[in-house]
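Trying the structure run again after the queue cleared.
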Amino acid sequence: MSKTTGRYPHMSVDTTGTGVVSHAGAVLLLRTAEKAGLTSALSTALSPWRKPLATHDPGKIVLDLAVTLAVGGDCLADLAQLRAHPEVFGLVASDPTVSRLVTALAGDAPAALAAIARARRAARTHAWAAAGKHAPDHDTDAENPLIIDLDATLVTAHSEKESAAPNYKRGFGFHPLCAFVDHGEHGTGEPVAMLLRAGNAGSNTAADHITVVKEALAQLPSDPGYRVGRKVLIRTDGAGGTHALIEYLTKRSLGYSIGFGLTETMAGKVALIPKDVWTPAYDSGGQVRDGAWVAELTGLLDLSAWPTGMRVIVRKERPHPGAQLRFTDTDGLRLTAFVTNTRRGQLPDLELRHRRRARCEDRIRTTKQTGLQNLPLRGFDQNRIWLAIVQLAGELTAWTQMLAFPADPARRWEPKRLRLRLFSIAGRIARHARRLHLRLSAHAPHADLLTTGLRRLTALPAPP
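Done. Tokens:
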């Protein structure tokens, strides 16, 4: 018998193990889908694409793909991880069957995307209702609105794909525009709309922003018509600072907080603001920040060409060491501005609310970890279907955190941490009294958190 001097134990390895489930923690996602009614909603919505005598339900195939992305997959073939454990994930379609379904859905993309969107909205309605006070739309009003963040991102294409094009950063691929509901400081966020665009699509194309806003509003459990009003606030960077978008938001009576680029003439007006008018700005924690101030510039500008009610708020601060000043910066201070139609609230609070749109960049980053990093399919409409599945995966993850861990730090965990600590917990299938049991690893550090979340999900009422 030989001895080892290595740091890790040496052991023989074979493939004879049975009843072992490597992603047993993914049952959290399955229970959330059931409690939100997403399972049945997708089956109903996609029933027109089910062929007579077909074994596999298109709704379950799409949901299986979403679960695959949620646990770390990034292509259709990664569905094999679920297929290996039918005791947990049920009957999972083969790769050819999945490919044929995606092709069929892409063949009638507008109808397929509309069907998936209806299922998503129905499930969101149930999930938010079940979350109660922990839902993002709980007790929203004009002073505490539901916030929808808009932002675009670049997705690189490593091969020739339909509608892929060069982008402004000298890359090649796509330039999707995304919308996320912000869950606030105690949560994460969930996608509500994504518009797939070619890589050369403009950052400030107003028509695209309006399209995404419409799709996002249609996903809200509240009335998606023209009566949402100031209970919803659209927040985005300077790419949304166009006349057409702001006029549209004003017409819909929506609140907005949008980055605004100052011209040299506008920046020159900043010097006319009296020193005693400037108010100290807040840091991310809501405390006074040294070296930063805010003031309102509205009365010093000619805004007759802009919609009524638009306010311009400017911030000046000492730039970071090594930062280069711009032509619009004055007196060695960096100037930034945003516009809003919110009438109430202190300027530092409104400015802090606007800067928190940086959370949207975190949402995009985590969505890229959940299937957005690479659009794997050749056809443009096929990748539109893929993008809808990416949104389902993001929503399913957010709803799991909101319903299973409403007051736990796990609600703010990003997907990578969720996968490592919860979804990857291993288990073993046991059979007793004609029933299946999933025995989770007794040594998993967060097994108790997982079972606590499952109990919360089990206690929720079934969707009507």
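The two ends are 64 Å apart (CA to CA). Worth checking whether this holds up in the mutant runs.
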